[in-house]
């Protein structure tokens, strides 16, 4: 009688190691693909956020016949201050309940906490960490306010004089007289920019974009403080070359730029190689970080009369 072959009851060690190696290779191949898909979804959501902010600004223009200003008042109370664009656009971002808690003629620090502590998904780029309150000793209130990942386009000059002469699309209101006492605005200001006065073309002018935030400042510190108060570098950004100080340049920044000169005043997002903007016509554009300073300056300025020749 021929004996039957002995039945194997388990893998050999070598076979098990081969299987483990194959699984490891498959996981190594799969993880980058998953990360790539996730980042594509994050980038698309970021574009949608900017689109919503741009549409809100257009609705503000329809209501007031002027573009939303970067802030009310003269911003002399930094880091406190009167309502910035993030407050003024709330009714047009389906956040009217929050806006109704504001008295925009009074300083942010005098508002009820619910008015300035909102953490809104439309202000958050999902590639970055979740938004937090800007609770630190140097902000406008100790409890902090809501943060955000987008900034208005102030132009190419960070410190124009007077402030309302800023050459971007979203600039301060024109101060008509002595306008404030200790906490209240007492005389209205005048708007400065409307879509019709963006002479370089609304499709060629930034309106809002992703603000560069230095890694060590992320979430509640320095230029990542509340977008509902008056800390300038938390709500505005500049781009290109300063017309009054040639040594002041603000290129688009990569996410890891910690110590670059004027990095806390520049645009830049967490998406590899690009920074995303909503233009004044409402379209969203991804601008390469390698864009030249000349083109970047012309995209930041609303009425310089210069032609953009580079494909951006």
Q: How would you characterize this protein structure?
A:
- This protein has helices at residues 13-64, 85-88, 96-99, 113-116, 232-235, 293-300; strands at residues 150-155, 206-210, 236-238, 240-241, 249-250, 274-279, 284-288.
- It is of the alpha+beta class and 312 residues long.
- It has one domain.
- The strands form two sheets. The chain has a five-stranded mixed sheet with strand order 3-1-2-6-7. Strands 4-5 form a two-stranded antiparallel ribbon.
- The chain is globular and about 95 Å long.
- The model has no long low-confidence stretch (mean pLDDT 90).
Q: What are the SSEs and their pairings?
A:
Elements: H1 13-64, H2 85-88, H3 96-99, H4 113-116, E1 150-155, E2 206-210, H5 232-235, E3 236-238, E4 240-241, E5 249-250, E6 274-279, E7 284-288, H6 293-300
Parallel strand pairs: 1-3
Antiparallel strand pairs: 1-2, 2-6, 4-5, 6-7
Low-confidence stretches: none
Helical proportion, percent range:
10-25%
Largest sheet: 5 strands, mixed
**Structure classification:** alpha+beta
Count helical runs.
6
Order of helices and strands: HHHHEEHEEEEEH
Q: What is the end-to-end distance?
A: 84 Å
**Radius of gyration from the alpha-carbon trace, in angstroms:** 24 Å
Domain module count: 1
Estimate the global geometry from the Cα principal axes: globular
User: What portion of the residues fall into strands of 2 or more residues?
Assistant: 5-15%
**pLDDT averaged over residues:** 90
Please list the strands of the largest sheet in the order they lie side by side.
3-1-2-6-7
Q: Count all strands and give the number.
A: 7
């Amino acid at each position: 009688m021929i004996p039957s072959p002995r039945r194997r009851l388990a893998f050999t060690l070598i076979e098990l190691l081969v299987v483990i190696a194959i699984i490891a290779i498959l996981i190594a191949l799969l993880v980058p693909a998953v990360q790539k898909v996730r980042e594509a979804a994050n980038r698309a959501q970021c574009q949608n956020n900017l689109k919503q902010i741009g549409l809100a600004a257009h609705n503000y223009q329809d209501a007031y016949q002027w573009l939303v200003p970067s802030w009310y008042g003269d911003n002399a109370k930094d880091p406190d201050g009167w309502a910035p664009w993030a407050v003024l656009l709330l009714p047009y971002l389906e956040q009217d309940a929050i806006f109704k808690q504001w008295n925009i003629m009074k300083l942010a620090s005098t508002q009820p906490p619910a008015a300035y502590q909102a953490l809104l998904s439309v202000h958050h780029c999902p590639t970055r960490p979740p938004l937090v309150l800007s609770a630190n000793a140097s902000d406008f209130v100790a409890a902090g306010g809501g943060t955000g990942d987008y900034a208005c386009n102030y132009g190419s000059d960070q410190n124009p004089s007077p402030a309302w002469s800023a050459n971007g699309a979203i600039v301060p209101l024109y101060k008509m007289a002595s306008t404030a006492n200790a906490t209240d605005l007492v005389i209205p200001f005048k708007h400065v920019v409307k879509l019709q006065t963006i002479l370089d073309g609304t499709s060629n002018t930034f309106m809002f974009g992703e603000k560069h935030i230095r890694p060590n400042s992320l979430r509640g510190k320095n230029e990542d403080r509340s977008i509902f108060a008056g800390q300038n570098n938390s709500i505005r950004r500049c781009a290109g070359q300063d017309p009054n100080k040639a040594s002041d340049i603000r290129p688009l920044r990569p996410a890891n730029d910690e110590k670059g000169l004027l990095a806390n005043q520049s645009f830049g997002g967490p998406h590899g190689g690009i920074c995303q903007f909503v233009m004044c016509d409402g379209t969203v554009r991804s601008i390469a970080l390698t864009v030249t300073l000349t083109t970047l300056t012309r995209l930041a300025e609303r009425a310089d009369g210069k032609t953009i020749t580079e494909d951006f």
